[in-house]
Structure formats: structure tokens, C-alpha cells
Amino acid sequence: MSSLPVCQTLLLELHNGVLHITLNRPENRNAMSLQMVAELRAVLAAVRDDRAVRALVIGGAGGHFCSGGDIKDMASAQGATAHREMNRAFGALLEETQHAPQVVITVLQGAVLGGGFGLACVSDVALADHQAQFGLPETSLGLLPAQIAPFVVQRIGLTQTRRLALTAARFDGTHARRMGLVHFVEHDPQALAERLDEVLAHVLCCAPGANAATKKLLLASAVQPSNELLDQAAEWFSEAVIGEEGVEGTMAFVQKRKPGWAL
User: Fold this and answer.
1) Is 223 within 8 Å of 73 (Cβ atoms)?
2) Which residue range is the domain that position 65 belongs to?
3) Of 31, 95, 177, 241, whose CB neighbour count within 10 A is largest?
């Protein structure tokens, strides 16, 4: 089992193969500071190769998910180089979250703005409270969603992203589901918790290695020519069939029992 880093801006709880990561700066609506970015990247790196960690659940403390980048960090950065490096570090976090081999689930309440919006867009499954407030406020601050934009376009398409980014419009969880940003919308905290349990139960029925390879395949399908991708997919499939999980899954099916990974 991985050794998790000590964090000051995150709460970490590992239980039954699920790592719950809580953004914990409630006094700032969990604004994304440089320290929080670094700690999230360290956590992702610590569990990347640990198949005992099957899912990552990212939520926020104090009734909010994340209100975006920390304006104080931006104000304290000196010069263009510092701003560029700070911005790029957040982009690296989004890339690393998107490509995490675990299933990444976001639980979205309260503010889901800017960087928080970006994190929602790189999750595999997104659950939202119906009153959560989504938006890309950067242009209303004279800024641009530099690192977030490509991931938003991948998630909801170019036309929707243009509208949202160029108007800084706010919208709720129900609207977010209609545009495909989130998968489930619930009307109270208990229903949100029950939905999370249901999603996790489904995730834990799937083999962790197969999930990691499938996620890699799905992400590659957006950028690779189909011929090359299908050749690679055939290679991955053949490895899976003769691998430990493939053998166990096939035997479990024949023997009419649950495979060893199913909890």
C-alpha cells in the first residue's frame, strides 16, 4: 500500500480501496493555492502505481468544491515568469488527474468555479448538488482560463465552452447535467452520498488493471488515428487476456462466482 504524503490543505482518508481527498481551505471556499496544487500532485504521484487504490473521490470541505485559483497567490507572484510557472503547474495537475489510472470521481457542491470547474472536467464520474454553482469567471477578472480551456472543450464541446468562457455565465447542477458536464444530480446531501456509494460499488466490481488500461484507451481515442489506436488496443487486449486479471475473470465467469477483485 502506498505511503501518502502529509498534507496541510487536503484531508486524506483511505478506506476499502477508495482514497477520499477533501480540499480543505473552507475559509477561502477551497481556492486552489500553489500549496494545494503541489499537494494534490504529490498524492496522485504516490498512488499512481498502486492498484490497491481503486478510486479517488475528490470533494470539498465547508459546503464548497473549489472557487478557483487563489487570488492572493496571483497577487504575490512577481513577474511574467512566476505567473507562467504558477499557471502551468495547475495545467500539469489537470493532466495528471485526467490520466490517473484510478477512477476519479468528483463530488460537486457550492462553488465549482475556474480551477474547480477544470477539476470537474477531468473526472471520470461527476456527481453534483442541484444548487452547485458552476462557471468560468476568468474573463470577468480580465484573465483567461488558460490551462482549463482544453479540458472543458473535451468535456462539453467547443460551442458550449465558447459561450461559457466568453460570458462568464453561472449555472447550476441541473444545467451542468444537461450539457454533459456532470453525470448525476441530487437534491440533498444524503442522496449525494447514496449516489456516491452506488457509483463506487460499480467501480469496485471492475478489475483495477482493466479499468486503468480502458481509461488509457478511451483517452487515447480522442487524439490518435483509429488504425494506430486499434493496433495498440489489440496489443493491450492480448496482454489482458493472458494476464492475472483476465485469467481470474474468465475462470470466475466459468465457475459462476465473483472474481477476486469484486468487493
Assistant:
1) no
2) 10-203
3) 31
Residues 75-124 pLDDT 10s: 777 777 888 888 899 999 999 999 999 999 999 999 999 999 999 999 99
How far from each other are the two terminal CA atoms of the chain, in whole angstroms? 17
Element (H, E) at 210: helix 208-221
Judge if 109 and 129 occupy the same domain.
yes
Do 129 and 244 belong to one domain? no
SS (H, E, C) 226-250: HHHHHHHHHHHHHHHHHCHHHHHHH
> Could you tell me if residue 4 is inside a domain?
no
The pTM (predicted TM-score) of the whole model is 0.92
* Tens digit of each residue's pLDDT (9 = 90 or more) over 120-136: 999 999 999 999 999 99
**CATH code: domain of residue 139:** 3.90.226.10
DSSP-H helix ranges across the chain: 34-47, 71-76, 79-98, 115-121, 149-156, 158-167, 173-178, 189-203, 208-221, 226-242, 244-254
